[in-house]
TrEMBL record:
Keywords: Membrane, Transmembrane, Transmembrane helix. InterPro entries: EpsG-like. It comes from the Bacteria. It comes from Epilithonimonas hungarica. Signal peptide: none annotated. The chain crosses the membrane at residues 6-24, 33-52, 98-118, 130-147, 173-197, 209-234, 284-300, 306-329, 336-355. The lineage of its organism: Bacteria, Pseudomonadati, Bacteroidota, Flavobacteriia, Flavobacteriales. This is EpsG family protein.
Amino acid sequence: MIVLHPVFTILFILIILFSFQEVYSNEEKKTPVASWLVAICLILFSGLRGNVGADYPVYRSFYSLYFPTLDYSQIYDRMLFRQSAIDIEWMYVLLNKIVFAFGGPFQSFTLVSAIITIGMKMRMYYQNSVYPIFTVLLFFIPGFFIADSGHMRQALGMTMCVFSYQFIKDRKIWWFLLCLYIAYGFHKSAIIFLPAYWLVLIPLNSNRIFYAIIISVILSPLHVYDLFSSFLGSLNLQDVSNGYNGYIGYEDKASSFMDGTMVLNAFLLIAYDKSACKKIWYYEYMRNIVVMGVCLYFIFRDNPVFSTRLVGVYIGFSCLIIPNIIASLNLNIKRLWHFFFVAFMIFYYFVFASYQGKAGRFTPETYRNFLWSN
């Protein structure tokens, strides 16, 4: 039986226990100490990893060999959408150069990246989820490993999109656009989140959600995304090494597993829409974002790149909306659904460990961290 490294396994168990404390507590009170503890562990285990995760070796070589040769004027040109010789997004290059200027090794950059991606998401989860630790449990596998500890460019871009949700709620369009501009500077695929500012205002109910998803399923075999192939191809969805392709191979084989996850999300959105709308502030906003993600997933289903990378920022909100839906239910049903998702995540743990976890070097034999000698 393949398992993840003990630090991840122990943390996974702690997150489950903390989530039980949240859901089974009689008080509607969040636990900041637990959130801080989990956040610090996630940052250290991701930020100080060594040769772990997709694309780590090539990004390490870029950090010390390629990025230092680039002039700031080239970054400035790329920032203003002028012609430039830089092949990687300007904000990612700039962050690398700033960290490198202080003389730190590559793990300094991975630590800074982890502080940004995990810290900002944890803050957003704490502010917008009734059960923030339960939200982290759903994010932990696979998001933490594949994005925050793997595809760092896209993780940084997606995190800025997630952070922009605060400005969507407050209806501050210029701040939202600034977040999207920075997100685009980390990874081009972030531009797909631009419609979210207006998308959240579309009035939906259970019937409309059902019909939207059914239409998306019908459109799936028609490959309608081919009409926008030139635009979608320009988003540079694939990362820079074969580490990415290895993950895609596993995700392609596990499409039926992803299908089941999307169907489950769709069921919760449809079945408990009224209850959640009545009890959760701004539920309609996050619901519309996840509905968009589910619909795009089925439309892009036959393309493993688009259906995983392109819609990830929308689907990423599912770890936020599921705990909020469950929090809106009566006590017995709430605990039943929580137990179901805990069991599901335990099952997912072993599925992930056997495939992406092994490929990404997160197992006991392969995981390395600069906090301890190996």
